[in-house]
UniProtKB/TrEMBL annotation, chains A, B:
EC nos: 2.1.1.131
Uppermost EC category: transferase
Pathway membership, UniProt: Cofactor biosynthesis; adenosylcobalamin biosynthesis
PANTHER family: COBALT-FACTOR III C(17)-METHYLTRANSFERASE-RELATED
Any one biological process term the GO annotation gives: methylation
Keyword Ribosomal protein attached: no
Protein name: Precorrin-3B C(17)-methyltransferase
Annotated SUPFAM superfamilies: Tetrapyrrole methylase
Keywords: Cobalamin biosynthesis, Methyltransferase, S-adenosyl-L-methionine, Transferase
Entry-linked NCBIfam families: cobJ_cbiH (TIGR01466)
InterPro entries, alphabetized: 4pyrrol_Mease, 4pyrrol_Methylase_sf, 4pyrrole_Mease_sub1, 4pyrrole_Mease_sub2, Cbl_synth_CobJ/CibH_dom, Precorrin_MeTrfase
Tetrapyrrole methylase domain segment(s): 6-212
Organism: Lacrimispora defluvii
GO MF term list: precorrin-3B C17-methyltransferase activity
Length: 246, 246
């Protein structure tokens, strides 16, 4: 009798083993095969040396998901791993889309600590009130729509967390985003950047919006633009929820 | 010689032990005292029976934070626990504000899986693209500002995740929010609700925006309003990231 396959889509958090949930660890233990982007699978290899690991390079997300679905359809227990959360710019949506014609395939989505939260903890408490999460990558989204989202979030005084703030081809995207926000928020608005969250070389900085505009960041950085309430307290970035007399 | 106190602010996720990160569990193990809202502390009691537990009822957040800070200042190792993440409508901001005059007190913020992510995993992948997180509670925020944020998020086609969608005093708030979004999104927009995430009695439903408008939810529910791309796939709510030919 053939065993039934199962596909976990697992958010592993920012990178270190400690930042995984117990549910995520248990799903990986239960899996025979771990599938993912090379960098994240390498982070897991030392903790799960007995597992079969399958990787594809960056930008081959569809091939990666198809591979994971195929193995599960063959009866294997498979974990598709994503950095951060499985859903926030993660692979769970693509897995569910590609497995549409296989409604009987058991798919379990396991959430994880996305960069907005893990970087937020490093900075202090930037996301203490309503916020927007926006990716500056225009690979799959028109830039006009991204700009509209930045404009609308800033004009209603929401904190903004930016994913994919830069790459070699998009060196000026963060500057452009800051200029849009500056039409609604003051130059001294408190902002923060965190690089290599939860990994070697983790760095954070709290700075003003006008300084952020002229700061170069790389693709391993998460950026936070505060709202009118955000302040710096003892070197940390804090957006109060609004309790009285505090 | 007096030991040095330490204050952890710990996001414990939706409720079950399995949904905590290993870092959160380690912080609780390292603490002598666990402080929190009664309901969340009760969830932890069976796993950490040897710890001193201090609780305050709902709405006494300032007293709770002051108590945690005081114990840490006395030299104790203290964990202030928050459901979900420590920062997203959590206590880390208030702790940092109230400890402003004690810059030498060691405060470590530990993130957790916030309801947007844990509920998202139950529904499928609603947050696969840019999204806004908005609380409908007007206890600390003017309703005009909340409405402006809803309007702006919907008009730039962002997915919206609603916290605190209802309470006894605010029975019609979700209906009002849906009416605002309906000025920008179609009545058949795919939405989702999740109740009692990660606890006994967990329930989810995928439904249209026009049906959501006339649905009663309680304060233990998290609500997701999709964007123009969101669809239902095999009973799950999926917002695609936009890969071609999928």
């Amino acid at each position: 009798m053939r065993t039934t396959g199962k596909l976990y889509v697992v958010g592993i958090g920012p990178g270190s083993y400690e930042d995984m949930t117990i549910r995520a660890v248990n799903a990986l233990k239960d899996s025979e095969i771990i599938v993912g982007y090379t960098v994240y699978v390498d982070l897991l290899r030392e903790h799960f040396p007995e597992k079969e690991m399958l990787t594809t390079p960056m930008r081959q997300e569809q091939e990666r998901c198809q591979m994971a679905i195929l193995k599960a359809q063959e009866g294997k227990r498979v974990a598709m791993v994503c950095s951060g959360d499985s859903g926030v710019y993660g692979m769970s949506g693509l897995i569910l889309q590609l497995a549409k014609e296989s409604p009987d395939l058991e798919i379990e989505v396991i959430p994880g600590v996305t960069a907005a939260l893990s970087g937020g903890a490093v900075l202090g408490a930037p996301l203490g009130h309503d916020f927007a999460v926006i990716s500056l990558s225009d690979l799959l989204t028109p830039m006009e729509l991204i700009e509209d989202r930045l404009r609308n979030s800033a004009s209603s005084d929401m904190v903004i967390c930016l994913y994919n703030p830069s790459s070699k081809k998009r060196a000026d995207y963060l500057k452009n985003a800051c200029e849009i926000v500056l039409q609604h928020q003051k130059p001294e608005t408190v902002c923060g950047i965190v690089r290599n969250i939860g990994r070697n070389g983790e760095e954070m900085e709290v700075l003003t919006l006008s300084r952020l505009k002229d700061t170069n960041v790389d693709m391993f950085t998460t950026v936070y633009i505060g709202n009118s309430m955000t302040r710096e307290i003892n070197g940390r970035m804090v957006t109060p929820r609004g309790y009285k007399n505090v």
